[in-house]
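Record filed here:
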Amino acid sequence: MKRSFRILWRVLLTLALLLATLWGTSALWARLPFADMGRGALAAGFAIGMLLAIAQLWRGKLGGAIGITAALWLPLLGWWATILPSNNRDWQPDVAHVAAASIDGDVLTVRNVRNFNWRSDTDFDERWETRQYHLSQLQGADLFLSYWAGESIAHAIVSFDFADSDPLAFSIEIRKEKGEAYSATAGFFKTYELAVIAADERDVVKVRSTVRGEDVRIFRLDMQRETALGLLNQYVLLANDVHAQPRWYNTLTANCTTMIFGMARRLDPRTRLDWRILLPGQLPSYLRDREFVSRDVPLADLIAAARIGPRAAAPPPDPEFSERIRQGVPYPAGARSDS
């Protein structure tokens, strides 16, 4: 029995060390400021050292395994702690500014609202604006999902609908530097800062549908006005926090969907952990199961009606864009009746 327990313990510890080896090796490869040969040599050396620690473990030399692991991980973690996010880099124009906001009574003032006129991904008129909204005129919130890699991967945007002004959309994105490209793998390893972008729907939604050719879908959310107001306040707090103190984007734990989930979970008990949170393209079924969207039509019909593609295109300034893309999209039963 004791021998079986020792074997099981070693197997579990070996699995933990293998996972640590994978993470450490990947972190070194992703973030060391050296040429490929130098990064590769150090990452390989780290991996070999961790494998030696595992070998020591299976030889019954626990002290040797602990010593090797500590000798590798203490400098790694010390170096890792020095990699800090920044708000001062040579950013790409679309993330040159991040949102900041203040609330004075009924008036929400949002600075750095992006309102670009896009002709292509590289040809656009750059506009950053300060806008004001009356909280008493908030009617509800909608969710946009922009599909760009199959049915499981999508970018999530939450847009707040006001009776007396254009909608205010929030997009949580990576803040890319000029010349930088997105990599989901690199996103695990302190590669990109996180950006909270406040934008006009004719910018942040329309560019994805008409310029980038993504499959954008809109889902009208079933939530009380007080819950929508609470979610808007959460976005204000997050935007101000990121504006004052930069933070890292993370492909798994701090992305466009998990950040929204974290805010919504504090406001609505229907928001529960689910595997579909990690695959945002699958969110429509999650939203329907939790009664956040209309259940009056089959899910397939709801998704079909949500696609804005045929309704999105029109020349600028396109003042009817937000109203037009919502035509035919089902309201949840009783939605916004208390607005």
